[in-house]
Design goal:
Length: about 240
């Protein structure tokens, strides 16, 4: 049975030609940290919420205001849209969420989707942190070549980002997956900062200073981890002993 996922619209903006950032995490925290930082740095407005019975029954509280666990932020001037979630969706939700993202992109005239991801690398690898790109179309691959973004020649991209790449190829929609290849000692926040630098090269409508993200990497990562743990706990049934503690 396909899970129903829908959008609550809060505000209308003109977003023709905008880039959508996938902030739904698969494994690590890179996509969520990158999405959160972009929202703050670009002062994006919340224009909608994404909801489903399959999502955790939680309310994220920011500045004393309740927020849905999955939300949409955007800016008319920056031409950036961010789909943000602090929780990792169940694998069964990957396709419905990706389909919703494509549908939303077509409805609002958005031109491309950018999906941050992370993969681990062996200790003998020369660089401790490198960003590689994978594109769904000839156009995306040509753009990355011109910008000097290294190609991910072999590997596997899972979850929503994997579905976005496959469907983007099938329907001819531009999808970029930016993959941070990192050694174990590199924090997700630092990997996210490196990916944001590459997003800036792909998106000339924005200018972002990532230095604060590098400086606050450990603090930001701990905060996001705590939110994810709380959201995960809300999806797990409690035992009798836990319920009466």
């Amino acid at each position: 049975m396909t899970e129903k996922i829908f959008v609550h619209k809060f505000k209308d903006l003109r977003l023709e030609g905008a880039a959508i950032i996938n902030g739904f995490p698969t494994g690590g925290l890179v996509s969520t940290i990158a999405a959160n930082y972009l929202i703050g740095a670009l002062k994006l407005d919340q224009i909608g919420a994404i909801d489903s019975e399959a999502f955790p029954p939680v309310s994220m509280i920011y500045a004393n205001k309740p927020k849905f666990p999955a939300r949409i932020y955007a800016g008319e001037e920056s031409k950036i849209v961010v789909f943000l979630s602090e929780f990792t969706p169940f694998p069964s939700l990957a396709r419905p969420i990706a389909e919703l993202m494509f549908s939303w992109a077509r409805e609002h005239g958005c031109s491309r989707i950018i999906a941050p991801e992370v993969i681990g690398v062996e200790e003998e690898t020369r660089s401790s942190l490198e960003v590689y790109g994978v594109g769904s179309t000839d156009n995306t691959r040509e753009v990355m070549k011109k910008l000097g973004i290294k190609r991910l020649v072999r590997g596997m991209i899972t979850g929503i980002s994997g579905v976005l790449l496959n469907e983007g190829r099938r329907i001819g929609f531009d999808v970029y997956s930016l993959v941070a290849a990192v050694k174990p000692e590199v924090s997700d926040a630092r990997a996210a900062a490196k990916i944001i630098e590459v997003i800036g090269r792909l998106t000339p409508t924005i200018k972002i200073d990532v230095e604060p993200l590098y400086e606050e990497a450990e603090k930001i990562e701990k905060f996001i981890k705590r939110l994810r743990e709380q959201a995960k706990a809300a999806t797990e049934p409690a035992t009798l002993s836990e319920m009466y503690r």
